[in-house]
Amino acid sequence: MKRLKFTAVLAAILLLTSIAPATYADGQRTIVDESVYDLLVDRFFNYTNDNNFDVDYKDPNAFNGGDLLGVKEKLTYLNDMGFTVVNLGPIFDTERYDGRLALSYDTIEEHFGTPEDLKALVDAAHELDMKITVDIPLSRVSAQHIWTSNENWALPNEDGTIDWNLDLPEVREALTNAVVGFISTHNLDGVRLIATDGIDTEFLNDLIGAIKDAEPSAYVMGDGDTGANFDLAMYDQTEEILRELFVAFDQPSSQLSDLPVSNENTAAIYVDTPFDSRFTYDIVSERMFPPTRWNLIMTTFLTLPGTPVIQYGTEIAVNGEKAPESHPILSFKSDDELIKHIADLNYLRNESEALRSGKYELLKNEDGMMVYKRWNDEETWIIAVNNTSETHVVELDDTVIGESDSILRGLLDGDIVRPVDYKFNITMDRETAEVFIVNEDRGINKGYILALILVWILFIGFLTLVWRQGKKRKEESSK
User: Fold this and answer.
1) Is 97 helix (H, G, I), strand (E, B) or coil?
2) CA distance 160 to 149
3) Is the pLDDT of residue 10 over 80?
4) How confident is the model over 316-367, as pLDDT tens digits?
5) Handedness of CA 133, 139, 140, 144 (dihedral sign)
6) Secondary structure string (H, E, C) spanning 288-348
């Protein structure tokens, strides 16, 4: 097993030397260059017991102990998977573990930690070249919020929460100052404005503008199709299409063309949000095998245009029909096959400008067999996804690939496709996906072959040494 892993790593290093190093427009990352890991602080990792008052691990509705220092402790875990942004659920004083029933817009919830803990997290993330963003709810907050003492500011909802009366200039100003102040005070890299239903686009754009004036590099993300000028928008349509498409094999795939993705790349690509059923729940309900389903969908949305946003626990296929069942405290003792798959794909995406912000063309889309192209002036990728119950062969003209003397080199399973009569025939087994990079055909890769031979020589030499030592010990013990 160790020999196979070593061989795979060595082969990957040799194959990936043809990929251009990571580059960014104007030398600075933008939201399209990021890969986002979205988490709830209370349900991620419990680092310290100092803030574990009124914690009940057995009650899914109670605080379970996760804290900001727990996120800091696991930054390397997230960095190793290739994530570049960690988005925290709301961290203000709150009635509920998920942070949505906020009681203020300035004080950090004691269960989560202190301002010093948040600073430590942000500083540690920056050392790893990662960013920290935070959710801020603009409505549906607690009826006990400190602002409700202001006359006419609060608008009660039937569920007991309150919205803000944004017809009042003083409320708009207070909310804007609170959001901008929180970002600046804690040196955050941005925010995601949530609970935006019913809030007029004019105010949202004014708020976005105020954030950008104060912190020009801050990301401002939104949780719905509001029409506002968010850096990244999360459209319900995206989640619905991807879930329907990948919940089982042999699904109609024509809706892939309806995804709100384009070469502008301003849309989030995601299949789980904090308050829906987990996608794993849908998969199991269809009596499908979650690892296979997740393998296909991860390959797809980590190579489509847009910014991937992955919900915490996706890497271990967390299940659950609804909150709080879908919000377990995360277990870090699990099979790492999906974790490795995410890491491999994020590595490719992080290293390739074409996969992040290159052009996109859907080449084939028929009954679950999908092939699309991502490219720029430097490199071309072909992604093939067979979400069917049968093997398929897809024929591509060399004009689609770009060069007649090129080959398609698969970076997940190592397949190599060469042209025959100016055609590339890609064979895909059922329920598999492959990411091909277009390389110049240089014939036999002598360096790669020599490296594999060296691996075998070293391995055989190691086995011989072990055998001789065992034989010697056996002879000595028999004397």
Assistant:
1) coil
2) 16
3) no
4) 999 999 999 999 999 987 768 999 999 999 999 999 999 999 999 999 999 9
5) positive
6) CCHHHHHHHHHHHHCCCCCEEEEECCHHHCCCCCCCCCCCCCCCCCCCCHHHHHHHHHHHH
Q: Is 315 exposed, middle or buried (0-12, 13-18, 19+ CB in 10 A)?
A: buried
Q: Note the pLDDT of residue 448.
A: 54
Let me know: does 192 contact 137? Beta carbons within 8 Å.
no
Work out the number of other CB atoms within 10 angstroms of the CB of residue 352: 24
Token pair in block for residue 397 = 């003209």
Dihedral (CA of 135, 140, 143, 145) sign:
positive
Q: Judge whether 39 and 83 are in contact, CB under 8 Å.
A: no
Provide the CATH number for the domain formed by 24-357 in this structure: 3.20.20.80
453 residue type, one letter: I
The Cα-based distances of 81 to 142, 268, 330, 342 in angstroms read 35, 19, 16, 6
In whole angstroms, what is the distance from residue 187 CA to residue 195 CA? 23
SS3 for 469?
helix
Q: List C-alpha distances in Å: 324 to 82, 142, 275, 294, 397.
A: 28, 18, 9, 22, 50
The answer to whether the predicted template modeling score (pTM) of the entire model surpasses 0.90 is no
Nearest to 255 by CA among 387, 358, 148: 387
For 172, half-sphere exposure in the C-beta direction (CA atoms, 13 angstrom radius) is 15
| Residue linked to tokens 């996120």 | 71
Joined tokens for residue 186: 């804690």
- In the Cβ-directed half-sphere of 241, how many Cα atoms lie within 13 Å? 20
Q: Would you say 208 and 216 are in contact if contact means Cβ atoms under 8 Å apart?
A: no
Burial group, residue 54, by CB count within 10 angstroms (0-12, 13-18, 19+)? exposed
Residue type, 54: D
Q: Determine which helix (DSSP H) or strand (DSSP E) holds 77, and give its type and residue range.
A: helix 75-80
The model's confidence at residue 476, banded by pLDDT at 50, 70 and 90, is low
Give dist(CA 241, CA 256) in Å, integer: 7
The encoded tokens of residue 242 equal 């991807």
Quote the CA–CA distance of 329 and 68 in Å, as a whole number: 14
Domain range annotation of the chain: 24-357, 359-440
Tens of pLDDT along 409-434? Answer: 999 998 899 999 889 999 999 999 99
Residue 89 DSSP class = P
Give the architecture (CATH level 2) of 359-440: Sandwich (2.60)
| Residues 201-233 pLDDT 10s | 999 999 999 999 999 999 999 998 888 999 999
- Could you give the CA distance from residue 452 to residue 442 in angstroms, rounded to a whole number? 18
Cis amide leading into 324 (omega within 30):
yes
